[in-house]
Specification:
The chain is of the alpha/beta class. It folds into three domains: 2-51; 74-193 and 348-413, Rossmann fold (3-Layer(aba) Sandwich), CATH 3.40.50; 195-346 and 426-456, Rossmann fold. Helix content is 47%, strand content 18%. Strands 2-1-3-4-5 form a five-stranded parallel β-sheet, sandwiched between helices. Strands 6, 7, 8, 9 and 10 form a five-stranded parallel β-sheet that branches. α3 (89-112) packs parallel to α12, α8 crosses α9 and α9 packs across α10 (328-336). It is elongated and about 75 Å long.
């Protein structure tokens, strides 16, 4: 650096001297020479002094960067979109009870482990309405929530999935089963889809001796899918048997999901069943009712027709263990027609008795299979969040399969397929029984998917 400044100074002085004229006398040049040398020495001194100043100046104290927060802290909110009212209110009531238990247990675990964060399930009532479900999800997302337990019905989940996919929000359902939603997306389902349940219902109807089915179903994505797959599997069984049998689609009744009263549908069903019984015999004809809690209103209208008491009825997970059907005005008929209902079985777990005891104490009912699934959703979300250490829905979704590999939940071991749906094949069979003068739901058998057989408990 010193050499550079000296050269600059000399060049400046020489150039200036040259510009003053070529005829400068030697004497004048000699007079100027000492001044040039002095100027150079002055520059050298400045440079040296500058260097010494820098070397001796006090150095600033090093700044220690503030470390970024590691892991989750504070309260972490999970949206819980539950049908507390509407035609799945029995589901919602059980889900709420079980999420309150899970929240308490998870936070006790986090405290014992010395974790600096706690979980909170923010419960909103969807009224079993797809639009309300979507609106509540948007509101919670606006408040910063990115992970949800919701979509109790397939229609609700279907309404919200496009928004979840577009915004990378994770939503996990304990009870959506429509095959139309079996695709890779930001929605996971801890229950198998209705391709499996349709096969189970078809086989149960066949093993019960039904050879001719009259289907009645709610006209939404769930009802349409379950009716389709039940019919297809029943026809496969029928063709393989070589017997005279089938699905009487000319008598099929697809009703509006918003319907509250069913006098017209019940009258039509009575005519259809009467015709079928005349052709095939009452022991060969069965009614397949795919419904939610509006089934109670349907039975209330149907009980006026004696012919509808003389054939067997079959239901599904939408009517398994629902409270409205325990009302004496409709329970008597549901029991008389052996209205059997399938729901994915939670299997055997060390958590089973705890959950059964709690739901009985709080609601006076045995918990349905999906209630166990809701408990496992809550716990697996918490474990995945703790593992990734950040409130990131995509990362939680990615790690959940690894968490589930080691997790033994209230519904046993959980494995999800490539679409995020549960892989399971067994179904509890629920029916209404009368115990000491009181109507109750009870699991009376198990459909075993592997062997396509039924184990009857009584």
């Amino acid at each position: 650096m010193e050499e550079k400044f000296i050269n600059i100074c000399i060049n400046i002085c020489i150039n200036r001297e040259e510009k003053e004229g070529e005829i400068m006398s030697a004497t004048a040049a000699k007079i100027r020479t000492p001044y040039i040398i002095a100027a150079v020495l002055l520059v050298v001194g400045i440079v040296i002094g500058y260097g010494i100043g820098i070397a001796t100046a006090p150095k600033p104290a090093p700044v220690t960067p503030t470390p970024a927060p590691v892991g989750l802290t504070g309260e972490v909110k999970i949206g819980a979109l539950l049908p507390m009212t509407g035609v799945l209110s029995t589901f919602g009531a059980q889900y709420k009870v079980i999420l309150e238990l899970a929240e308490k247990e998870i936070n006790e675990y986090l405290e014992a482990a010395g974790k600096p964060w706690r979980i909170r399930f923010v419960i909103e009532d969807t009224a079993t309405d797809p639009k309300t479900h979507y609106d509540k999800l948007l509101a919670l997302h606006g408040a910063g929530i990115k992970i949800f337990i919701g979509g109790a019905s397939s229609a609700e989940l279907s309404e919200s999935l496009p928004y979840c996919d577009a915004n990378n929000l994770l939503i996990i359902s304990p009870s959506s089963t429509s095959p139309a939603l079996a695709k890779p997306d930001m929605g996971l389902r801890y229950t198998p889809n209705d391709i499996v349940q349709g096969k189970a219902i078809a086989k149960i109807l066949w093993l019960r001796g039904v050879r001719w089915i009259i289907p009645v179903w709610r006209g939404d994505t769930w009802g349409d899918g379950l009716k389709r797959y039940t019919s297809e599997y029943f026809m496969e069984i029928c063709k393989a048997s070589g017997e005279s049998c089938g699905v009487l689609d000319e008598y099929a009744i697809r009703y509006d999901p918003a319907a509250k009263e069913f006098s017209v549908e019940a009258a039509a069903l009575a005519r259809y069943v009467n015709d079928a019984v005349a052709k095939y015999g009452k022991d060969k004809v069965g009614v397949l009712l795919i419904a939610f809690e509006e089934a109670a209103a349907f039975f209330a209208a149907a009980k006026a027709y004696p012919i509808l008491w003389e054939v067997q009825w079959e239901g599904s997970d939408g009517t398994a263990a629902i409270a409205p059907l325990l009302e004496p005005a409709v329970a008597e008929m549901a029991m008389a027609v052996k209205f059997y209902n399938t729901m994915a079985s939670p299997g055997i777990s060390p958590h089973g008795e705890k959950i059964k005891k709690l739901v009985r104490e709080k609601l006076g009912l045995d918990p349905m299979g999906y209630t166990y699934f809701a408990y496992d959703i809550a716990w697996s979300i918490a474990l995945a969040l703790d593992a990734v250490g950040t409130y990131d829905p995509v990362k939680v979704k990615e790690i959940l399969p690894y968490v589930l590999e080691k997790y033994l939940g209230a519904s046993g071991y959980i494995k999800l397929d490539e679409n995020g749906d549960r892989v399971i094949a067994d179904y509890d069979i629920w029916a209404i029984v009368k115990v000491n003068g009181t109507y109750e739901w009870k699991v009376i058998g198990l459909y075993k998917g592997l062997t396509e057989t039924i184990e009857w408990y009584e």
